[in-house]
Here is the input.
Amino acid sequence: MNRSFLSQYGAEIGTLAIEHLWLTGAAMLFAAAIAIPAGIWLTRSPRWAKPVIGITNVLQTIPSLAMFGFLLPLPWLGERAARIAIIALTAYALLPILRNTYAGIRSIDPTLIEVARAIGLTNRQRLFKIELPLAASFIFAGLRTATVTCIGIATIAAAVGAGGLGELIFRGVASVDNRLVLAGAVPAALLALIADGALGLLEKRFKVPAPESARP
Amino acid sequence: MSAALEFRDISVVTAAGRSLLDSVSLSIEEGSLTAIIGRSGSGKTTLLRTANRIVVPASGQVLIAGSIEQDVVSLRRRMGYVIQETGLFPHFTVERNVGIVLEAEGRSRAQRSQRVRDLLQLVGLDPENFAQRYPHQLSGGQRQRVGLARALAAEPSILLMDEPFGALDPLTRAEMQDMLRELLTRVRTTVLLITHDLDEALYLADRIVLLSEGKIIVNVPRNEFLRSERPEIISYAAAFHRGAARSAQESASR
Here is the structure.
């Protein structure tokens, strides 16, 4: 990749990277807004856990190209490629967030939950002061997995014309120009790495203080 | 004196239909310490948990100062709760753990902070040194002190203690028992203490209740307990002090 290539495509890479981030970011917001409350609800009604997590699991197994294709003919959604992309990415992001929220809260020592009730915390106080903080690092781990997956899958959204860095990759493949493929793939990978790192820091920040294990 | 806490005909049945408590009635005088002893599985913890409605009885009522509190949250805030595992929240500092009930009640930070300092001093912990620590940075005895401070934070009229010192070594346990005894001379509260340590019951309690298979077998003042001729008491007491009994036997035969 030389200087002239970068000067020719630099601005476009920037625009597409922002588009890529916007698609992923919007999908992550939707997914978190659905999956975190749903995960909390499942801890209250555990008999629904299996079927609900099962459904999100099935969503996860749909090949992404097929998913974009399925959504294309739908009214309103099909009108704008970005809508399709965001819905599809949201569907993919649900499982890791839902599963981790559920597992994170369920893994809290039952004694702590009992104490929280026994000392007279209301359900809401128990959730916000005890359960969510104690499950936070789990939930962030779920968000992290979901984000990295979505940044990857978002490259395929270009197939339905939703834009993003996948656009360069598809163009590169079509014109057998590896520089274009790399111009899409490398920034996409960098975005994933940066998002992973940033969410990893958050995950660590919310780790529950615990004793350091003794050195053997 | 009136009953601070009264269990009336409490029966508890598991989902599988097993009876845990069989119409237990027990009245606890205001300002007294009642110890409930008995084997594991005799229903001690279940009885205690009906007081703060962690366990809901199949039948019977729990009265606090003569009346039934309808609102479960305010009921629980009127009762301190101390358990063997301490149940300190690992993500809170000592200060926040102790002040959590006050925080839940919406008291101001300044009020909380002052009250927490007083409470830590009450349980023998230096606030300067301990307020900002996390539970994992404390020893077992210190954690239990913090647990007790938390239970006392909202000035509860009743203190429920479920084997609070059961996991501690004998020396620490003795220190904690002394601390509790001293503390109860300053804080007027009614205590229901579960223990299977007869010595602890004899050392701390005003009354001792022996529970067996979900029924109250004995309910006597402390000083009558060892004088009792009842076989259940004799066998319970004999199960303790066995080491001392053996040593005595050996030195007698020498």
